[in-house]
Structures are given as C-alpha cells and as structure tokens.
Amino acid sequence: CSSLAIGTTSGYRLFSLSSVEQLDQVHESNEIPDVYIVERLFSSSLVVVVSHAKPQQMNVYHFKKGTEICNYSYSSNILSIRLNRQRLVVCLEESIYIHNIKDMKLLKTILDMPPNTTGLCALSINHANSYLAYPGSATSGEIALYDGNTLKMACTIPAHDGPLAALAFSSTGSKLASASEKGTVIRVFSIPGGQKLYEFRRGMKRYVNISSLVFSMDSQFLCASSNTETVHIFKLEHLTDSRPEEPPTWSGYMGKMFQAATNYLPAQVSGMMNQDRAFATVRLNISGQRNICALSTIQKLPRLLVTTSDGHLYIYNLDPQDGGECVLIKKHSLLGSGKMEENKENDLRPPLPQSYAATVARQSTVPSTSTMPGYSEDGGALRGEVIPEHEFATGPVCLDDENEFPPVSI
C-alpha cells in the first residue's frame, strides 16, 4: 500500500503514497492507450500493463529504463493480473496462467474452471505462502485454494451460498477474506486449512456489490467497500481469548452470555450472534462508482485510502482504538497533468498534531537475517526498509541494479 497505479484512456500513471499532503507522480506513460490493467510489483520498476487495444496481450515493462521485458498473448481477454516476488498470475474467464516471475516462464495452466467473468482471483503477497484463490463454482460461493509454490490444489472452502464477488489475502497469506454477490456477510478463513475464523455483517437492508476487500498490513483490520456510499472497517479481535484483567462490564457480561448461548442454539441463530458490526465507517460523498480501498500507515499514522473511478483519492484518519466515523483529511485529483498540483480547497483539515494514533503506529519488523538494502525509488512507505535476502527470487539478471527485486531476464 505504498503506491497507487491507475490506468487511463491515454496510458497509465504511478503515484507514491508516502505523504498525506502531497501526492507525487512517480511515472507516467502514454505509449499504450486505454490501459485497463496496470499492476506494479511493490516498489520496484516492474509494471504489467494490459490495454483495450490488445486485451489478450500482457506487456511487462521496466518503466525506469523505459524498456519492455517481455510480452505474452493468451487465447482470450485478460481479466486480471496478480503478482508477488515469485509468481505472476494471469486470469482469463475460464483459465489461469502461473508464471515464474524471475524469468517469466509459464509454470502451470489451470483449466476446466467454472466461468469467472469478472476475473476474480487473489494471490498472497507473501511469496513464502504463494496461495492463489479463485471461484470454484459459478453458482455457489466455493473458493478454490491453489498453492502457487508447489503448483498443487490445496483445498476448497465452502464460503458462501451465492457466487463470490471479492477475495483478499492477509499480508502473510495466513488469512483469506471473502464476500458473495449479495455482499451482506464477509467471512475470514484460516489458510491453508480453510477454517472459518470471523464472520462480519456488512448490512441486511440491501444487497451490494463489494468492489474492494483488503486487510491492513498487520491483519488487525479488514476493509470492505461497495457501490454504496459507505465503507466498512472491521476489527479482527479474538473474542474467545481469556482476559482475567478485564474489568466486568455490562457489554462484557452480555457477550459471555451470548457466547454460552451459542452452544445450545441452532447453527443459523448462533452464527448470527457471532457476526460483528463495523468497527469504523466512512461515508463517501459519492455513490454508485467503483472504488478501491487500502489501509496503510502514512507519516506514522493509520489511514484509510479510497480511490474512486472518477479519478480522486480520499485520505481518512482511522482511530485504531475507538473506531467510529473516520475523518476526511485530504482529497487529491489523480487526473491532472504531470506532477500533482495542490489546491488550497483540497486542504479539508489543518495538519493534525501527533495524537492517539502515533502511540499505536506499529513499526514493521525486519528479520535479523542476512540483508540487502531495499530498492524504493519513490521513497514511499518502504523508504529505508531493509529487504531480507531470502525475499529475493534467484535469477541471472536484476531489473535495475543489485538492490532491486526481483531479478528478471531481459
């Protein structure tokens, strides 16, 4: 969540998300028009682009050098692309292609899939757990879980009654969140076992189309956005943990009563009791537009970012302790020319002093193994990060220099 990629009728753009007040454009390309897929590999210079002009062709670029690494053509239109440091996954309507990202060789083709008209699939960003999830049925909410490292099917998860609409892995690949086309219930499963861990109710009044489902990097929060004006953030708390120091409260007492009651009630009723309402919410000033959300730490504070299909980025403060309504602090336009011009009218709030969030901002832990300096040309949230040596895919030639990952043959 340290950068943002957008496809436009004239090409694509990459932005850094290291600051609330300033949105830096890292790169802009007008070589290929009508870009509808653009995926950047973390903060490296590798970017994968698909255009409406050639919807069956994937182009892989080194945008800093301005060179094309390779391109592949497929039998039908490309619907989505996912990548981590080991795998590049191309999803068509009835097949999925898995490439080795260090040399782009095709490792596996998954055929005989049920029709997947939206190209729904998710790939763990943690390449040590390169699990791939995609719909296992066109009529029910079955999830097919595939191991991208061993290239074998791991399991199937009966997640929902209706067809799937959204899938998302946690940063470690140990949890998988899902939502159906009804969009009323969101479930979280353990990976690779597929046991249900959490169940959240987004709402009962109306069916919605959930367009974005994303975990925070520490897996403590899960965000869901849809074609409505409301964005929901759920907190993944272990409700069954024993807390002897916890002072007795009415809500705590009732919670224990409900927990005990679930042992005696029918599964449908007890399931309803275990569903938690949203921990925090956002009400957008637009409705009916597709949007994508991210939960990120920017300038040491937890933020919710919402990008809408009309070309705007909204940044909200998230209170990780008390939740509630998130406060909008900045709005950026993504469709200006060149570097982003800051408008005074976009300054929706003065800069906030260090607050509650500063004390709970979590520092990313770095394994104390043999390390190499991380490459992050945009100075994003990964600035100064040390990338463990085992994070690199082995290969003959690096993308840019010895410090950039992953090595890819040119």
TrEMBL record:
> Which named protein is this?
WD repeat domain phosphoinositide-interacting protein 1
Pfam families reported in the protein's UniProt record: PROPPIN (PF21032)
- Residue ranges, compositional bias (Polar residues): 361-373
Q: Where are the transmembrane segments?
A: none
Gene Ontology CC annotations of this record: phagophore assembly site membrane
Give this protein's Gene Ontology molecular function annotations: phosphatidylinositol-3-phosphate binding
Q: Which portions of the sequence form the region Disordered?
A: 361-382
Which keywords does the record carry?
Autophagy, Lipid-binding, Membrane, Repeat, WD repeat
Homology family = Belongs to the WD repeat PROPPIN family.
Q: Name one GO biological process term.
A: protein localization to phagophore assembly site
Its gene? Wipi1
Places the protein is found: Preautophagosomal structure membrane
Check the record and name the SUPFAM superfamilies matching this protein. WD40 repeat-like
Lipid bilayer topology: Peripheral membrane protein
Q: Does the keyword Kinase apply?
A: no
Tell me the domain of life. Answer: Eukaryota
